[in-house]
Specification:
alpha/beta; Rossmann fold; two-stranded antiparallel ribbon; 15 strands; globular
């Protein structure tokens, strides 16, 4: 498959099962295979038990198999694995799994050293109730991990929440803009980035920081949140009137393609959809597919959490998944009552409280 192509599923309106969906989300393109080839050695994915981790791990394994031929490298998914099923499915796909509390120095010390690390661990929801836990998860844990993997290439996930809200009349926040976190969760995410920056400065660690904003698949994400609200007959809040969304497969391959680009000082890249989407327009387009007339609540503010993706497009190319396809697939999945993760994004929050 060429670097610029996206394989479509057999079902014209989307996917018939989670297995089909996960196979698609974990399929590497040729550019991903080439990037993995330029980052030789084993790959360890820390915090692999979340929404994106399992398909990213499978994509890494598939890319490594294509890149290495008969010479195999280890792809190791590390997590506490709250879902035993996710761990079993990873093992069935050929990914090694290890259970580890990344906040426990002794357990982290027992992890194998790998030349390549994707760091996905973190906490967002629950910060209002337990802010100290979020600070430990997002700032102290990266420091513990950094000590163990100081000589590895590290692609570290961050978030677009490190930026302030920016005018919707512009192109979004750029990587060179000052951070301006709104709320305690966003402040901890700046802290996480600073830990990796310090690691690069003191240890010479090669780092790429992924400021993600917002990844989606059919089971979760901004489009799914809006589609399920439409089917419930709930009004759609529009105070946070604009968003970026990126298909999870595009976000997965972006992270892996950044491995050979990890640098000192860290390379920071916004990974997000290239289009600034109006929430009203999202609701209208999904509503037309679902046969529902949207109702709205509130008025759009003049600013929102938005990212400029010029650097991503220059380094990695734009996302491959089209918006129309995402709308079609999300509407079909939700309309047919297929499985959801039950993890709303709370993209409407303007105060940074989660």
């Amino acid at each position: 498959m060429s670097a610029g192509s996206t394989r479509q599923p057999a079902a014209p309106n989307g996917f018939q099962s989670e297995e089909e969906l996960d196979n698609h989300l974990s399929e590497p393109r040729q550019a991903t295979v080439d990037a993995v080839r330029r980052a030789p050695g084993d790959l360890i994915i820390l915090g692999a038990g979340g929404k994106m981790g399992p398909t990213l791990a499978r994509m890494a394994l598939r890319a490594a198999a294509s890149a290495d031929g008969t010479q195999r490298r280890r792809v190791i998914a590390v997590s506490r694995f709250p879902s035993a099923n996710a761990e079993l499915e990873l093992r069935a796909a050929g990914v090694e799994t290890m259970r580890c509390d990344l906040g426990n120095r002794d357990e982290v010390a027992d992890l194998p050293i790998a030349p390549n690390v994707v760091y996905m661990a973190g906490q967002k929801f629950g910060t209002r109730a337990a802010p100290s836990r979020t600070w430990i998860s997002n700032v102290v844990v990266p420091a513990i991990v950094g000590e163990r993997f100081a000589h590895s290439r590290i692609v570290a996930f961050s978030t677009g929440n490190v930026y302030p809200l920016v005018p919707t009349s512009g192109s979004g926040a750029r990587e060179t803009d000052p951070t301006g976190p709104v709320g305690e969760y966003a402040a901890t995410c700046v802290g996480r980035e600073r830990v990796f920056e310090h690691l690069a400065e003191v240890k010479g660690t090669r780092v790429a920081i992924v400021r993600l904003n917002y990844a989606i698949d059919l089971r979760y994400g901004v489009l799914t949140d809006i589609a399920t609200a439409l089917l419930r007959g709930a009004p759609i809040p529009v105070a946070m009137g604009h968003v970026n969304v990126i298909w999870q497969r595009d976000a997965n391959r972006a992270a892996l393609e950044l491995l050979p680009l990890a640098a000192t000082p860290p390379l920071v890249v916004n990974v997000a959809g290239t289009e600034m989407l109006a929430v009203r327009d999202i609701a209208a387009r999904l509503g037309a597919r679902l046969g529902v007339e949207p109702r709205f609540e509130g008025r759009e503010a003049s600013d929102a959490l938005l990212s400029d993706t010029s650097r991503m497009c220059q380094l990695l190319g734009p996302p491959e998944m089209s918006l129309d396809t995402m709308f079609d697939w999300v509407a079909a999945w939700v309309r047919e009552g297929r499985p959801l993760l039950g993890k709303p994004t709370h993209f409407t929050a303007r105060d940074g409280v989660f």
